[in-house]
Amino acid sequence: MSKLDAWNDSLSEDLLKHLQKKLSRRNFLAGMLITGAAASVMPSLVFSASNSSIQKEPWTTILIVEDHLFPADGNGPSARDINSTAYLQAVMSLDDMDKEEHKFIHQGVGWLNDLAKETHGHAFVELQYQQREQLLHKIATSQAGENWLSVLLFYIFEALLADPVYGGNPDGIGWRWLEHQPGFPRPSESKRYYKL
User: Fold this and answer.
1) Tens of pLDDT, residues 144-161
2) What's the number of domains the chain is made of?
3) Which of 31, 143, 146, 150 stands 20 to 30 A from 11 (CA)?
4) What are phi and psi of 123, to 5 degrees?
5) How many Cα atoms within 13 Å fall on the side-chain side of residue 48?
6) What three-state secondary structure class fits 28?
7) Is 33's pLDDT higher than 60?
8) Domain for residue 2, yes or no?
């Protein structure tokens, strides 16, 4: 049995249903609309993650994967530009984060590193750009790998579209790129819903 087959077999039915619901096009778009609307009327959730915490696993691997998924290609902000890894790290620290999804994101890093070591003899972060790209294409051919990459993309887009007070989209870089005018009133930092 290959690593990808083992990864697919480890997905629980509940997690698959959760991911299918979350990642369906309609629910994704509705979620993005709700995120934008909530940012304009709800108390804010301020995300902060220190650079030192992102330079530890699993965050280093997630940062590099997000760079591949949403690169700095000159066509708009990159995953790094929108602070997507710090945003995801903060979301995953919340008590109401789905436990199965939380576990799945962490397991994905482990599975990706296992596959990188099996294929290239090194952890994912130690590989050359092209080796990483090939490995990501390979895992995208499995159901678990495709779901894992889709979940990461979901949070990249949330970081891109959310109000900057939530930790992604610093200074509205994503909004400017999309030529979006945010709704008013925008949330203030003084009304934090969660303290991180």
Assistant:
1) 999 999 999 999 999 999
2) 1
3) 31
4) -65, 160
5) 8
6) helix
7) no
8) no
